[in-house]
Amino acid sequence: MLRFFSPPNQLTFLRILLTPVFVGMYLSQDPTIRQLSLAVFVIAMLTDWYDGWVARRWGFVTRWGTFFDPFADKVFISSALFAFVAVGLVPGWTVWAIVGRDVVITFLRSYSELKGRPFDTSRLAKSKTFFQFLAICYILVLDVARTMTSLENSWRDTVNSLLSRTIIDPLMIFAATFTLITGIAYIITNRTTLRKLYGLSD
């Protein structure tokens, strides 16, 4: 029980709590509040890095934390992407593809853990999460920047062009495609575990 309330898990839980705060601030009609959502995003990202470092440094790595940390990432990423859909920045179907993949893989992984057959996490899957964070950073920073009244018109035009659908759509299509590929790779890597889990082994 004490390890459940370990510092890394508390940081992970904080990231989940920050999710609705970030979404609410980002969707605000007040430019200042919307700009402050970027600070909340940065804090959430720092907790993602720091909880993993603390867990490894001080020996707080647990099965619960191994599941809880990526779950918090998925909640935050999915919420941020749906917020972008709400303001018309990204195509909705790409976000549904990303979230759908994560729901399926999370279910399979959780069920296998429950049955005592843990999944192997690939580096490709970890790089997927990193790329999603980069895509969110790109969109968020530029979208927040154009709400700043101090931004010169020439720079505002540049920011708007960088957020045009001719750039954002290919970016999100790549993100969705890469995410789906990592999901397939995840299943292939753990196919033996899945066969045993569902009684499909030869």
Draw up the topology in text:
Layout: H1 7-26, H2 31-58, H3 63-86, H4 92-114, H5 123-145, H6 153-162, H7 165-189, H8 191-197
Helix pairs in contact: 1-2, 1-3, 2-5, 3-4, 3-5, 4-7, 5-7
In short:
The chain is mostly helical and 202 residues long.
Strand content: under 5%
Radius of gyration, whole Å: 19 Å
Within CATH, the superfamily carries the name CDP-alcohol phosphotransferase transmembrane (TM) domain
CATH architectural type: Up-down Bundle
Q: What can be said about the biggest beta sheet?
A: none
So what's the overall shape?
globular
Low-confidence stretches: none
**Averaging pLDDT over every residue, what do you get?**
83
And the CATH topology?
A: Four Helix Bundle (Hemerythrin (Met), subunit A)
List how many beta strands DSSP finds: 0
N-to-C series of helices and strands: HHHHHHHH
Q: What is the chains' assembly state? A: single chain
- Taken together, the total number of domains comes to 1
Q: Distance N terminus to C terminus?
A: 40 Å
Helix content: over 70%
Helix run count? 8
**CATH uppermost class:** Mainly Alpha
Protein structure class: mainly alpha
